[in-house]
């Protein structure tokens, strides 16, 4: 047994919760790999090619064997997470093993605390409807070109899980604004009904008749009685029953504002909106004091998107919700990677409302921007 194998043996004798393998060998098929403990006796390897992820579950007693098969053959760097420490190991160009240990600041084994990396959606157990939707192959692999979208909807669902798993309510009524092909609606339906075991009703709204027809056909075919898709402009939709949650993933331009405004009007408990193209503010922006912002096209575009989302978050807070904005997905999976998430507060704070309103007015006054959401909520 060489020094590296001995080291791996010692590490695998600890309660390893997660391991991350990087610095792939030139001849390796994989770019990265992770190993996670998914139950007391089971681990899962996730191997990543450029565009695809492959999963394999294996019993805990095989951990050492599996780690030896990855490190250092396919990857020359590894990190092993236990609740207490992170153990780092690297093989130098000369083949020497270097290793260190640091305190684990996020004991669930995650690297970044603002991100939820629990894998709620198990790609191996997705129902066959996802093959018909066109996101996975008949034998259960995510289609290369859909991998980024799949990542987005999984992370979106994981962030919903963070809130909903604590909510004792047994029935949820959800509206998906600008649902498109509805991968997100179907994953969320699967999550609520199969993983949480709750009753769920999801209504998807979109302008495109063909995608709405296809989604309704698939929902009926697979017996998803709680799913319904409506072809309409989101502006014209009226809900028959109060929705508990409004979701919008990349609903175009101001469709995000309509989604948020309707959620607030309905008194929905949760809002999850990942905005898409944001053209509206670009037509209006006229800074009083910071004219240089509009001198460069890309800076202007990004600034307008940031001001729009800042105003949206402030308007949501003004309307009695707690709200934050998080990067729900790495940039490589979508540049439109901000998620506005909000939860209705039990009661409003009048002093705070006045302060938030003056912040909103201050932004509008400085930049000359008055977004759709502001008109819908404040000009009633
Ligand atoms: C970028 S796609 C996103 C689709 C889906 N949510 C996803 O993430 O895969 C935006 C969708 O919003 C729909 N949409 C845009 N404006 C809309 C409106 N006013 N009413 C209904 N649907 C709208 C478009 O038809 C399109 O399918």
CATH homologous superfamily classification of the largest domain? Vaccinia Virus protein VP39
Number of domains: 2
The CATH architecture designation of the largest domain is: 3-Layer(aba) Sandwich
Poorly predicted runs of 5 or more residues: 109-117
CATH topology (fold) name of the largest domain = Rossmann fold
Q: What is the alpha-carbon Rg in Å?
A: 24 Å
Are any ligands bound, and if so which? S-adenosylmethionine
CATH level 1 name of the largest domain: Alpha Beta
Output the strand order for the largest sheet.
4-3-2-1-5-6-7
* Derived structural class: alpha/beta
Measured distance between first and last alpha carbons: 75 Å
Assembly annotation? single chain
Describe how the helices and strands are arranged.
Blueprint: H1 3-12, E1 18-24, E2 32-39, E3 42-48, E4 53-59, H2 63-70, E5 75-81, E6 85-91, E7 97-103, H3 129-133, H4 147-164, E8 171-177, H5 183-196, E9 199-206, H6 209-221, E10 227-231, E11 245-249, H7 255-266, E12 270-274, H8 280-284, H9 297-318, E13 321-327, E14 338-344, H10 350-367, H11 372-378
Parallel strand pairs: 8-9, 8-11, 9-10, 11-12
Antiparallel strand pairs: 1-2, 1-5, 2-3, 3-4, 5-6, 6-7, 12-14, 13-14
Helix pairs in contact: 1-2, 4-5, 7-11, 9-10
S-adenosylmethionine (SAM) is lined by residues 149, 178-181, 183-184, 205-208, 233-234, 249-252, 255, 276.
List the keywords:
single chain, 380 residues, Rossmann fold, seven-stranded antiparallel sheet, seven-stranded mixed sheet, 11 helices, 14 strands
